[in-house]
Amino acid sequence: MLGLQTYASSSEGESDHEDTASAAKSESSTPIPDHLLPVDKTHSLSNSIAVCAAPTVIPLGASAVPRTLDPTLKEVTYNPRYEEMYAPVKGPEHPDLTMQQRAPRNTLAGYVEKAHINAFEFENQRRTFHTYGYALDPSVDEQADGQSFVGDLQSAYDDNGKTVFEAPKAKKLRKQEKNDNPEDIEGFLGPWGKFENEVSVAKPNEQERAELDELLSKRHKRGRIPEDKPLEEKSTLHIKDAYDYQGRSYLHAPHDLGVNLRSNAPPPKCFLPKAHIHTWSGHNKGISSIRWFPKTAHLLLSGSMDCRVKLWEVYGDRRCIRTFSGHRQAIKDIAWNNRGTNFLSASYDRYIKLWDAETGDVVSRFTTRKMPFCVKFHPDNSKQHLFVAGTSDKKIICWDTRSGDIVQEYDRHLGSVSTITFVDDNRRFVTTSDDKSMRIWEWDIPVDMKYIADPTMHSMPAVTLAPNGKWMACQSLDNKIVIFSALNRFKMNRKKTFTGHMVSGYACQLDFSPDMSYLVSGDGDGKCYIWDWKTTKMYKKWQAHDGVCISALWHPHEASKVVTAGWDGQIKYWD
Q1: Angle at 181 between CA 180 and CA 187, to 5 degrees
Q2: What is the pTM of this model?
Q3: CATH architecture for segment(s) 266-574
């Protein structure tokens, strides 16, 4: 290499090489290859190439560049700093992550470390557990004495923890009567033969019988709800003219009001109510439910927490007509039948009672010893003897009022049932529950045909069907009113959501205007809200009650009249 460097480097050397080359040519007549001849000075590159002898140095600021540490490395050849070890894997660190989200993980649930265990030992303990019911505790370190077991500890200590490969003593099996002869039809036992000395019927002696009776009586006494003396079921008539000159009762709708109460057509256009025109007061405690008289709405029924149900006039003097008393605890829900001759009252005293609206008598009583949260008559005229009730034990129970028997039970919900709504020409009904789900049922088929549940859904304790039967408005406890289709798919309409009110924790009943222009609802602060149905825009809100405004209903034949009920014990009429 040194010879090649000095090759053709100086003039003296070049002349010497020329002399030797010429001498060689002269001495030998054989030609010399061109690559062995000295390079001509004119063609040499040594005069044109400039060699840079500057050393390679680290540029300024390079020491501030952090080193990256591969998280998959098993061994690190240098001592990394704290910032390098706990730096984010890729890119800048997310500022909003929690400590749990920042933690490294190699599976969806967390970080799994590989554990090394002898394959034979694992199989040995697995077989031992399946055969004898015990195995060594895998959570104990290797330094333990090997006396920590899981499973059947008594068998483990009796066998000194021996495994299947160490063959503990064979357990003595009871002898079994055998008769495997298939020709013996009467005496054939097969694998179902009794063991020797087996007693098939255990009859307690007198002492055991006494102890058993005492135990059962205690259990029965503990589980039994104490019954008070029968409560007097009575009704009080507050008006003198219960019948008119033609012998018609107050259930008969008047004709001289300027409004056709028997019309099936809604008002052509509805308007927002502007003034408070009347207050019905007579309940001592908050009101839980109000219902219009079916079809005509010339009467109003209210159930209260003072254990009473009252019937009010909507037109004329707007008097309290009758008070029905017969429950021990607060009324939860009320429901009319189609004709308006009877109504149901569901109470926290676990009873549902069927009342005659004209005479005030109790026709029937129904109970399953569970609290009923909602009641509803079947809307078909041919099925007016059937009603359904959602109870606190997650069931929907159907009763027959003629016999008083339970004719069907729908038991699929995971929480107490809040509402029952009939849809699709009364062939189906929709229920909501505290389990934050909605189920759709075919009538008289106790298996739900559709189950609607979503992680974003909340409990919906109040549901109202639209007048056209196509939509259901559901009061959701995340302070929203959500709309579901009431036909076929029962899909949530995510474009129609009504917000602005505060109903979290309250089952505030809502209603549509008869022409479906508006949606009205109360809220937990005592306000009443009205939204536009098409645009979901809030049109009006006002302070209606001092406490919770638990219910708001639009009159089905009046264009701008709304009734609200609150926990202040008052029912207010707005126009």
Answers
A1: 85
A2: 0.63
A3: 7 Propeller (2.130)
